[in-house]
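ok trying again, last paste got cut off:
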Amino acid sequence: QVQLVESGGGLVQAGGSLRLSCAASGSIFMANIMGSNVMGWYRQAPGKQRELVATIANGGRANYADSVKGRFTISRDITKNTLYLQMSTMSPEDTAVYYCNAKRTGTSSRGYDYWGQGTQVTVSS
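nice, full thing came through this time. structure:
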């Protein structure tokens, strides 16, 4: 079954670090390796819109939101079918629910937009 399962969220002090993991089904993960979809991380703070954090596609090319560039790193591990988000130098502005996403643009059943259940990240000051 197609699935995205996040883990690694928790409470961290400002200046600290966390690594989030997203375990993906094999077909979805391999589609990202082959460049057929885009996978990434989004986050949503209470009362705010969901925002893009980072994506990875096209041979491993990564893109980052300006607010996290230089602090967060997105990566993939093909042996574990897992997407990671390494977060460092964290601040209370990073507090949010973080979601893993896999999206393929296409018609009918060729396209999809899958989301994980989310994992809470709270940064204390």
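cool. The mean pLDDT is 95. The longest strand covers residues 96-104.
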